[in-house]
Amino acid sequence: MDTPVEDAASPVSQSAFKFNQQTQILLDRLAHLLAPRWVAWVVSLLAYAVRVWMLRGFYIVTYGLGIYNLNLLLGFITPQVDPELEEGPELPTKSDQEFKPFVRRLPEFKFWWSSIKSLWIGLCMTLFTMFDVPVFWPILLLYWLLLFSVTMKRQIKHMIKYRYLPFTTGKKKYTSPGGKKEAAAAN
Fold it and tell me: How many domains does the chain fold into?
């Protein structure tokens, strides 16, 4: 038996598609606006911090946010291809070698978007008391600080061992003594 196929999608899936499309349009417009995006992230972080401070609770949600954002940070400062596993050409170690840009495992925009979404979700979770699990927050804070320091120590050792910096400004540009005049004359 053949089952009838609906030609039109359900109203729920149409609405979800339209919402996702509008969200993607907004994200595409925000992609090149680095400073305003990070200002929005700081505002979201402050809103979350003030809410948690005023409610004196939701420490387990905050701990979860801290672990998740630490994971995002690690993806942001880690190279896409691990030098330990790669046998091909290495990053240049001398100034006369070819410039190879640092390619992140997690690009900056995805890092920002995932982090700000987590802050918004955490902020929404503070609206429901079922997420306010009573815990002794100093232990969570100490454990997170220990986890952060051990993880960053390991990552910094990895950076030193393979001689890479995740925060490069790009290839060095050379100009002649009258660089601006020659560039204008060339056009």
Answer: 1
pTM: 0.75
Model confidence over 136-187: pLDDT tens digits? 999 999 999 999 999 999 998 988 887 777 776 666 677 777 655 444 444 4
Domain presence at residue 145: yes
Structural domain of 128: 19-84+101-167
Closest CA to 168 of 92, 96, 84, 55: 92
- Other CB atoms within a 10 A radius of the CB of residue 52 amount to 20
In a domain, 156, yes or no: yes
Write out the DSSP string of 56-125.
Answer: T--HHHHHHHHHHHHHHHHHHHSBSS-TTT--SPPPP-STTSPP----BSS-HHHHHHHHHHHHHHHHHH
Burial class (CB in 10 A: 0-12, 13-18, 19+), 158: middle
Q: Are 162 and 91 in contact (CB under 8 A)?
A: yes
In a domain, 172, yes or no: no
Structure tokens at 184: 């204008």
